[in-house]
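Hey, quick one: can you model this chain's 3D structure?
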Amino acid sequence: MEIVIESGFPQIDDWLCRYPKTRVAADDISTACAACWTAERIHRGVAVRVPSEPEKDSRRLRMEMWA
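Sure thing. Here's the predicted structure for all 67 residues.
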């Protein structure tokens, strides 16, 4: 979880203790942090699309990731 803390979510340990593991898994919380981190970078205009020119799948959806 160190990378999550270093990425701007120092309260993750509190969140992991606050919610029962039967209702929210630790990977759900870390995934939510990653989605928030990515959305914030896209909003600031500093995110990078990988690949820069994504292909489309059979449903014409772009196959891309953001970092």
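One thing worth noting: Strands lie at 49-50, 65-66.
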